[in-house]
Every structure is written in C-alpha cells, then in structure tokens.
Design a protein that fits this description.
The chain has helices at 36-48, 69-76, 87-91, 93-100, 171-182, 201-207; strands at residues 3-9, 14-20, 25-29, 52-57, 80-83, 111-114, 119-122, 125-131, 140-144, 149-153, 156-157, 160-161, 190-193, 199-200. By secondary structure, it is α/β, with parallel strands linked by helices. It has a single domain (3-211), classed as 4-Layer Sandwich (Metallo-beta-lactamase, Chain A), CATH 3.60.15.10. The longest helix is centred in the first third of the chain and has 13 residues, at 36-48. The chain is globular and about 45 Å long.
Amino acid sequence: MIQVKSFVFNPFSENTYIVYTEQKEAFIIDPGNFNEAETAMLNTFISENELSVQHILLTHAHIDHVLGLQGIYDQYQVPVLMHEEDREVLERNPMSARQFGFFFKPFEGAIQYLKEGESIHLGDEDFSILHVPGHSPGSIVYHHEKQKFMISGDVLFQGSIGRTDLFKGNHDLLIEGIRSKLLVLDGDTRVYSGHGNATTIGFEKEYNPFFK
C-alpha cells in the first residue's frame, strides 16, 4: 500500500509529495522547498517515519518545482528522474530565478531520463510514466494503476489545466494529451496536482471547463 504525503512550499504554493510504502521505501516528487524551515519539515517527516529515499522524481522542471532540488539531492544522494524534453527547462532556471528576483544555482547531480510507457518501481509497487507535454515539453504524470492515483504535476488541476504561455508551451498538445491519456482512466482515479487541491478524473470529466 502506497501512502501519499503532501507539502505546500515556496511563494508559488507548490505541492511537493513524498510517496512511500509499508516497507518505508520512498520517492520525493518535485522538491519545491524554498527555505530552511521548509527543508526541515521535509527532512523531519522522512526521518521520523524512517523512510529510505530511493529516487527524486520530477513531473517537470519549472523553477517552482525544483527550488529544493540541489539540497535534497545533496542530502540523499539518489538519482533524479525526469523526462529528457525538460532538460532545457531545468538548465534555464537560473535565468528564470533572476526574473523573479532571486538566485538559483545550476543543478549539479545525476539525472536519469524517463520515457512514455516505462515503469518505475518502489519496492513491489509500480508507477507508469505518461508523457503529457504542453505545460512544459517534458511534463510527465506518475500513475499508480493499482491504487488509482496519479501525481500530475501542472498538467491537470481541479477545474483547470496547466498554463501554456511559458517556454515551449502548447495548449492544443496539452488538451489532446489530457483527453487521450488521463480522461480515459477510471473516474475514481485520484489526481494529486502540482498546485491546489487533489481531484479525481471523474470530477474533471464532468466539471472542468476546458473539456466541455
């Protein structure tokens, strides 16, 4: 059984997730921790629950989702998993940070690239990789079919979708990807988004104005 713990971090109110098993194996997803207090909150949860961090996962590499990436990588020394199409997005983050008035050092660490259709394993639990570009070119969704939930990043929100006016954004591509890869899943599949509240596929099919 997978447990999902969420944290709301940084000035962008980004959702960082820890998913973990009964055997205490864990993934950290989108480490957006911005200051010492937020980092301590994340690390305290991991230590108090005696979790063993296996990988750091990125749904995508926009600045608000990677503000704590270097520090978390340095602490746990596990590879970062992401889609290769977002490599340029990650590399542009020092420039993105300057636009918001702060400094961001280029990431230095081991990265492994994921592709559509692959699976990653957390103990005996499997997550499938769905590539849903449009918000960013390498946006991916981590889908746990058995427990019917996904970590969607900024692809799909409660009542909305990710913005597409950023670097290499594409509105039509995002809409098509959500329709063909996410909305076809069971309606009770839970969606843990990159910002805001969790939702379900069924709710979004019924009420999301972008799919009317």
